Amino acid sequence: MGGISIWQLLIIAVIVVLLFGTKKLRGIGGDLGSAVKGFKKAMSDEDGAAKDSKDSKDADFEQKNISEKQSAEQSTEQNTEKQKDKEQV
Fold first, then answer.
1. Amino acid 70: pLDDT
2. Where is composition skewed (Basic and acidic residues) in this entry (predicted)?
3. Which of these, 63, 40, 50, lies nearest to 32 by C-alpha position?
């Protein structure tokens, strides 16, 4: 009840073959297969490009770790303090 039996599927397949013909169905199957193959290739190319972009540097900036960044901030703070002292004198 409510399920499709093997005989009903077979009848539907015969009707589809009679309506479209085997050549047209073969062409549709080939087109569908090549579309799926192209989609898989595009997805794998995108994954490869994403990995490459993560490994490469962003723009022209140098990559620094946290300790280098903190030491750079401290040196700039010291430089600004020295400039303020010079201005006051």
1. 73
2. 43-71, 79-89
3. 40
Q: Is there a contact between 61 and 53 (Cβ–Cβ < 8 Å)? A: no
* Radius of gyration over every alpha carbon of the chain, rounded to an integer in angstroms: 33
Whole-structure pTM value? 0.41
Instruction: Report whether 57 contacts 63 (CB < 8 A).
Output: yes
Q: What is the pLDDT of residues 10-65, one digit of tens each?
A: 999 999 999 999 899 899 999 999 999 999 999 888 877 766 665 555 556 566 66
The residue ranges of every structural domain in the chain are 21-50
Q: How far apart are CA 61 and CA 10, in angstroms?
A: 64
